[in-house]
Amino acid sequence: MDVLSDILRVIRFSGVIDLRPEFSAPWVIETPSCSNFAHTIQSDTTHIVPFHIVAEGNCWVKAKTDICQALSPGDIIIFPHGDAHILGDRLDQAPMPIVELLPAPPWREPPTLTYGGGGKITRLVCGFLQCEQLLLHPFLKSLPGFMHIQVFADLTTPLLKTGVQYIIQEADCVQPGSVCLLTRLVELMFIEILRNYMHNSPKEQMVGVLALNDSIIGQALNWIHTDPAHPWTVSELARQVGVSRSALASRFTELLGQPPMQYLTQWRLQLAAHHLQNTDESIAKIANQVGYESEAAFNRAFKRYTGKPPGAWRHHWG
């Protein structure tokens, strides 16, 4: 079982290019937190993961108090938790809120935004990935608040370099089918960034990512993802991976921030949400497929996690 592929199959991210800004020095703009920005652009969900690609020129990014990073052409910055941030060719002046510069949505294609003092040009390709709050897996929750990928660095994969070049090229000259193509390219870019992150990040930064490669937890995750409907217990999982019950529970919580049975419950409900959104199967059948013996127990668990019973959730997201 390829656990990462299984997670990304169920946790459906949708990639969007929402803006093609051209800034001229001096310029400083501020993007609000994801929930506020999602409302401005009329996103279907309040949880969005913003990113920016530097297509031309240089600039700076600042977020919170501990991030101040110079950016060059080809650099990608991602805010997995949707933090507010500031971009500019300089950071010593008051920023202009980006929401005050945007045309009124909805947009048929990503709008071009021109702003600044008329000096040196910086062009960006801006967008986001959107995903329902329910479907945030512990692995993804463990990602850092800020990710900086230097696409043209030696450690970057050829696939990521080529993908970013195509995104910049396609965003520059919108053609028939461009919106669909850009959506797919953004999703592929994010998957490749996750894979790159798993292989190249320092271990102290990886936290949840370590679980996928951990000799103990990796095995336990394989068993869970191979047969999520099985009536697993901590004791049975521990026997399967050859460790004590307490050792498994402790290691699982250390790497994923939750005990094994909580992870199993959450994964079952994520699978159920996936089936509700993408199939016409009955709620009773879905409940059985993800390991619930009764529809009533499934309804209670699903509502506890999402705030809505399965039928209402399907009506909203289906």
Report on this model:
It is built from 14 helices and 11 strands. It has a 6-stranded mixed β-sheet with strand order 9-1-10-3-6-11, sandwiched between helices. A 5-stranded mixed β-sheet has the order 5-4-7-2-8, with no helix packed on it. It is an alpha+beta fold. Helix content is 45%, strand content 20%. Helix 4 runs antiparallel to helix 5, helix 8 crosses helix 9 and helix 9 (234-241) packs across helix 10. Strand 4 (59-63) and strand 5 (67-71) form a beta hairpin. The longest helix has 23 residues, at 178-200. The mean pLDDT is 87.
* Biggest sheet architecture: 6 strands, mixed
Low-confidence stretches: none
Number of helices: 14
Order of helices and strands: HEEHEEEEEEEEHEHHHHHHHHHHH
What's the overall geometry?
globular
What is the CA-CA span between the terminal residues?
A: 28 Å
CA radius of gyration is: 21 Å
Which percent range fits the helix content? 40-55%
- Percent of sequence in beta strands: 15-25%
Based on secondary structure, the structural category is alpha+beta
Strand order of the largest sheet: 9-1-10-3-6-11
Question: How many E strands?
Answer: 11
Could you tell me the mean pLDDT? Answer: 87
